[in-house]
Amino acid sequence: MRNIWHIIRGDARRICQSVVAIVVIMGLCIVPCLYAWFNIFSNWDPYGTDATSRIRVAAVSEDRGADIMGIELNVGDQMIKELEANTQIGWVFVDSREEALELVRSSDCYAALVVPKDFSKDIVSFLSLKFEHPQLMYYENGKKNAIAPKITAQARTSVQQQVNATFLQSLVSVAAEIVSVLEAGGMDVETTLQNLSDTIEELGEELDGCNTTLNSLVNLANATQGLMYASGTLVGDISYSLGLTAQLVENVTGGVPSGGSNISGTINGIIANMQTVNGYLGQLYGQLSGILSDPDSYNKFVSEALQSMQEQALAMQQQANEIANNCEAMGLDSLAWFARQLAGSMGAFSETIGGLGPVDPENQEQWNEARERLLAALEILNTAREQLNSAIQVAGESIGVAIEDAFQSTIGSITNARQLLYLLHEKTASVSASLNGVGNTLGTLESGLLTTMRALNNARAELSELSDFVEALAHSEFLQQILTFLHEGTEAIDGHIASPIQVETEVMYPADGSYGSQMSPFYTMLAQWVGALFCAVLIKTPLRREDTPARLTMPQHYLGRMVLFLFVGVTQALITSLGDLFYVGIFCMHPGRFVLAAVVSGVCFTLINYMLVFTLGAAGLAASVIIMVVQVAGAGGTYPVEVVPAIFQKLYPFMPFKFGMNAMREAVSGMYGTLYRDNILTLLAISLATIPAAFLIYKPGKWINDLLEQAKEKSNIMT
Q1: 245 CB contacts (<8 Å, ≥6 apart)?
Q2: Mean local confidence (pLDDT), 600-613
Q3: What's the longest Cα–Cα distance across the chain?
Q4: CATH number of 245-423: 2.40.160.40, 1.20.120.340, 3.30.1050.10, 3.30.1300.10?
Q5: For the sheet containing 90-93, what is the strand order?
Q6: Residue 117 in contact with residue 63, Cβ under 8 Å?
Q7: pLDDT digits over 58-110, tens only?
Q8: d(Cα 623, Cα 630) in Å, to the nearest integer?
Q9: Is domain 54-186 in CATH 3.40.50.10800, yes or no?
Q10: What's residue 241's pLDDT?
């Protein structure tokens, strides 16, 4: 113990007798705290309005507006007016897209927000049941600063929410104006809804009449089916009684009834082809609609699918001409006319899409021209589908006529067959089979009619429910509340619609809204580790020969010089923590515990660094730097530990920074359970563990340090 006190007194005497030593010790105590204070000041409120308002973002609106029932709507202009009052970002309003982009390219602005020409038009496109997703164009400079794009991204999200609110405000305001115009014109909303209910009820009554007609058709088909089966049986009995040879029947078979079947089969084939064409048209329409809002998808379509689509269109044109030829050959002139019209539409569609070519996504005018051509092609497809639906309807009616003709032809064949019964045994058997086939066909028709009747009954029930709902709505209190709401005026409407949902946020562990206060534990820990490292670099652990007491042991040497290191470490902790509280002015709920956490952390860090440099020398200093770097990257000081690489997450439980920061965070924002005590005790345990660790490492560390010193001397460039 005497040797330990000898070293302590000697260190104190030499410091007090040397001005240089006093300056060095003062520097060791003060410089680390400056590192902490400056970093806390620089991070005091980086996301506050005072800071972000200096980040310049260009904004321009090219929106040409849209018309809703004669009322002009321009969401882009309204958004720019709102941004002019927004102080969250330093908005720079320019006159053109190119000017805004130039500010981003030259790094005069961190980002640019551009409202496209068709923005309002796309917003209200849902009224035409062809919804186009409106898109704001946002350009950011990723070169100028790594954090600025994250800050401007928050502004972008805010603008998106603001646009949604502005649109809802505008839409409801337009609805209010429309209601006012209707009422000024003598139209009452309640009366209009009542008339709509009456109209729906009349439609339901018409469906009841259709249902009655279908019921009569079912009864007729049922009776005709029985007649066909009875006729088939009678003719079959007569055929059997004749007993003529089979060879004679084969030579004269193939009568008119089978011809009727051929007519029906031919027309059914035409309908199948037309339905196939209708399927192709639907696929083409969906494919073109999917690329209307995205230039990149459009360019991909032009390069990969345009030629194939033209070939399909030409194939469908040829198929339509074939259908027309078949119909003309059968005398179905009306159906042939529709097929010719369809062929012409497909030819026009092929010619229209043949003019498409790749566009530059940045060239809005070129993209608009391509979209207009795409819209023209879609209009042609709509016309073609309408023509095809009409053709299918006409074909269905023609099938009915063809079947009736086939039936009459069959009856005629039966009459002729009766005249030849005694000579044409096999012929009459064929007639019997044909009659049975017609009976089966009538049975299928009856089943289809019954299915149609069930569908009409369901539709009638739904229309009845809809009529009751509309009538109830017309006289409901809810409708009166809506009309009253719309009559309140746009200011009241805007207040309700802009923020329909409010979110109340309650911070469980506040830090007075100061980002700097929340970052103070990390920068205080870092400053104390840097201070302990400086101390290990500037204060020598070996003793001079004249200052070494007799019979000095390694533990005595270690413990004696350790006191000087602890004095500097504790002083650093006190100056840094007290400066955080009273100079920087951080928010802290428990100042005393904050200072205690700093002192305990300072003791722990000092002993770790002292142990490393005492046992390993220069290698210990290198190890201290590595430990500091790892803790800066993975101790969860700036980013949550969950987002850092996996290697740091595995090392995190063993980092001294973790326990010091967690203890300080408890003191800053509020205590929970025994977390503060547990972290303080862990730091003290690490501090105590450094003493036996030094005794164990000293001898092998001295051998390693001697090898390093010899290698440095041999290099002739390192001291």
Answers
A1: 425
A2: 95
A3: 150
A4: 1.20.120.340
A5: 90-93, 56-61, 111-115, 137-140
A6: yes
A7: 999 999 988 866 668 788 888 888 888 878 788 899 999 999 999 999 989 98
A8: 11
A9: no
A10: 46
- Indicate the range of 313-322, 506-515, 570-579 predicted with least confidence: 506-515
Q: Which two tokens stand for residue 375?
A: 């819209």
What DSSP element (H or E) covers 482? helix 477-487
User: Are residues 648 and 630 in contact, defined by beta-carbon separation less than 8 angstroms?
Assistant: yes
Going by C-alpha positions, the residue among 676, 667, 664 that lies closest to residue 525 is 664
Structure tokens at 268: 């059914």
Q: What is the pLDDT of residue 242?
A: 45
- The residue among 420 and 145 whose pLDDT is bigger is 145
Domain ranges in the chain with CATH number 3.40.1710.10: 54-186
* Phi, psi dihedrals of residue 412, rounded to the nearest 5°: -65, -40
Query: Which range is most confident: 43-52, 118-127, 337-346, 680-689?
Result: 680-689
Average confidence (pLDDT) over 650-672? 92
Q: What angle do CA 522, 527, 530 make, to 5 degrees?
A: 125
CA atoms within 13 A on the CB side of 298: 23
Average pLDDT, the chain: 76
Task: Look up residue 129 and give its amino acid.
Answer: L
Q: What are the phi and psi torsion angles at 357 (to 5°)? A: -150, 170
- In angstroms, the CA 531 to CA 598 distance is 13
Query: Which position has the token pair 């029947």?
Result: 249
First-to-final CA distance of the chain? 35
Q: Provide the residue type at 17 as one letter.
A: Q
Pairing, β 90-93 against β 111-115: unpaired
One-letter amino acid for residue 2 of the chain? R
Task: Specify the residue for token string 């009616």.
Answer: 397
- Which H or E element spans position 91? strand 90-93
Residue type (1 letter), 102: E
Ranges of CATH 1.20.120.340 domains, the chain: 245-423
Mean pLDDT of 299-315: 82
CB distance 117 to 64 below 8 Å: yes
pLDDT band at 477 (very low <50, low <70, confident <90, very high): low
The Cα 632–Cα 455 span in angstroms is 72
Q: How far apart are CA 202 and CA 207, in angstroms?
A: 9
Using only the alpha carbons of the chain, give its radius of gyration: 46
Q: Please tell me which residue, 528 or 300, carries the higher pLDDT value.
A: 528
- Identify the three-state secondary structure at position 112: strand
* Structural contact between residues 36 and 581, judged by C-beta atoms closer than 8 angstroms: no
* Nearest 10 degrees: Cα torsion 433, 436, 440, 446: 150
* DSSP conformation letters of 600-616: HHHHHHHHHHHHHHHHH
Q: How many CB atoms lie within 10 A of CB 150?
A: 10
* Tokens read off for 482: 């809506």
- What span, in angstroms and rounded, lies between the C-alpha atoms of 380 and 389? 14
Which candidate, 69, 74, 72, 73, places its Cα nearest to that of 181? 69
Q: Please state the rounded mean pLDDT for residues 697-701.
A: 85
Amino acid 490: pLDDT: 52
**In angstroms, rounded to a whole number, what is the distance separating the alpha carbons of residues 185 and 28?**
86
DSSP per position, 59-76: EEE----EEETTEEE-HH
pLDDT tens, residue by residue, 126-160: 656 566 778 888 898 888 777 777 777 666 666 66
* Rounded Cα gap, residues 520 and 273, in angstroms: 77
Contact 193, 400 (CB under 8 A): no
Instruction: Quickly count: other Cβ atoms within 10 Å of residue 191's Cβ.
Output: 11
Strands 137-140 and 111-115: antiparallel
Report how far residue 532's alpha carbon sits from residue 278's, in angstroms, rounded to the nearest whole number: 81
Picking from 217-226, 356-365, 413-422, 681-690, which range would have the lowest pLDDT averaged per residue? 413-422
